[in-house]
Sequence to fold (123 residues):
Amino acid sequence: QVQLVESGGGLVQAGGSLRLSCAASGRTLGQYAMGWFRQAPGKERAFVAAITWSGDNTYYVASVTGRFTISRDNGKNTVYLQMNSLKPEDTAVYYCAADLSVETVTSGRNDYWGMGTQVTVSS
Fold:
């Protein structure tokens, strides 16, 4: 079992930045691909970014490319999502995800999810 706990959400003005963290416990994070998803009010949960277990490859949805950066520190069992140039449309609950396969993570069919952290971007 892998337990995931997100933190770092909050209220920020448009154009601002936030860094989300996802701390994992229960298993060594190093063998898992990790990802971030978000769910806006009235919408389905959607893929944002993913990173392979080694950190060598990253994947992003087009709407955040160039603004968001996913990274990981396997020694700290933590994955990060640096979000810059935030827009009101980035407002959502952000969820951390983990699976042995990055393809599974990007599809949202992964085994493990965190409880989410709220990000609100005001205009």
Observations:
- The two ends are 40 Å apart (CA to CA).
- The helical segments are 102-107.
- The chain has a mean pLDDT of 95.
